Predict the structure.
Amino acid sequence: MNRPPLDYEVEPDRIVVRRKPFPFWRYFAFGCALVLAAYSVALAVFVWGW
């Protein structure tokens, strides 16, 4: 009785945790990095250009 609930709890937890935040966090991190990099480059070019 101890093994089935543990297996059942570990499997859905892993699938849900691995399937849901992976794409969201990846897109969010990529978007944040892209925006930060673009802003930094634009600011550097603007400051250095002027």
In short: The chain has one domain: 3-49.
